[in-house]
Fold this sequence. Notes:
452 residues; mainly beta; 1,4-Beta-D-Glucan Cellobiohydrolase I, Chain A; 17-stranded mixed sheet; two-stranded antiparallel ribbon; 11% helix; Glucanase; glycoprotein; secreted; signal; cellulose 1,4-beta-cellobiosidase activity
Amino acid sequence: MHQQAFLLSAIIAAVRAQQAGTLTAENHPSLTWQQCTSSGCTDQAGEVVIDANWRWLHSTSGSTNCYTGNTWDTSLCPNDETCAKNCALDGANYQSTYGITTTGDSLSIDFVTGANIGSRLFLMEDENTYKSFKLLNREFTFDVDVSNLPCGLNGALYFVSMDADGGVAKYPANKAGAKYGTGYCDSQCPRDLKFINGEANVDGWVPSTSDRNAGIGNHGSCCAELDIWEANSISTALTPHPCDTATQTMCEGDNCGGTYSSSRYAGTCDPDGCDFNPYRMGNKTFFGPGKIVDTKSKMTVVTQFLTSDGTDSGTLSEIRRLYVQNGKVIANSASDISGVSGNSINAKYCTAQKKAFGDQDIFAQHGGLSAMSKGLEAGMVLVMSLWDDHHSNMNWLDSNDPDTGSASTPGVARGTCSTTAGDPQTVESQSPGSNVVFSAIKFGPIGSTYSS
């Protein structure tokens, strides 16, 4: 996923340990979800926590910012080790600072709130632990309202193979952990994180020339990523991204690959994935305002993870998608691309799609669905976010990508947006009131989370 952090200040640690500040109390907003069986669904008491990269980072001895805009305070943070000693990660004011509100089973994420742009949240099992979902031979369902997401925005719901405790077990001196949203990783091996593995990412930090709140450091954080839902009111994509090692690992410099490095395919993860975007697959009437799946109204999104032998211990063999809207079950659109058949993601589809679009098959090089299966087997953390794209205007989701390509070339057109509509300066100034609402999260055996 092409994701980056946006905020005034960010995260922290002591040497290989992230410290928690005490100036603002950390109170997680509650969020109910449902565990389902063949006989019905029962409420589960959950909560959400904002990613550490959005948080206020200040001196342990007071309230001096360790990070402001997209630069570090060089006196507090001259290097990774010293910065980790000097700075602390504090609690968050979810609604007033970040525009995050919850009511029952519903989570609303606002786009622009004061100086803050977007946010990234994790579902918690308890105050100190992320909820870990084992998805093999299961289905995951949620409701979403994308009616207020224009071109260039991405209201995303996805899974990553990050540590459920935020890295505390691996780095025992970590004083912040999952309670403060630490430990993020994904298949882009993001280098915009302020701390990775309990260490600061100050060394080699280069402030972004286009994003006043972001930059990149020498280190990145890699892990398998399953993008169940990347969408706005124009387009949607479902994309698994395997890694050679499913669980979180730290990488260095351009060897990380992904969006944040000069060599996209240098790393141990697949930054492209094997995607199913109905528009990209040739169906231009399926998803959008007034279309078969009408983005002007709330919808239910069901994703099923089938295994090779139909058991929980089998290998991931297929990812299926369907929708429920206005009481009607809607099958995913079928591919209308020559040489590519079906309406789900499986090995045959992925190989055929890469060939039809002339894309490098990085998905297969990193193990495809078999490698992705390891992340699902081990358990993955649920992430919900809203963001804009300083790297490519979100063209890979809702416009032409590459932006110099012709829409008539198979695979180039991803949606109806212009290649400049998603420019962050444009969407932040013209659509600051945008938001996404996720609700009614359900998880259980195949066929247990929705009514047909």
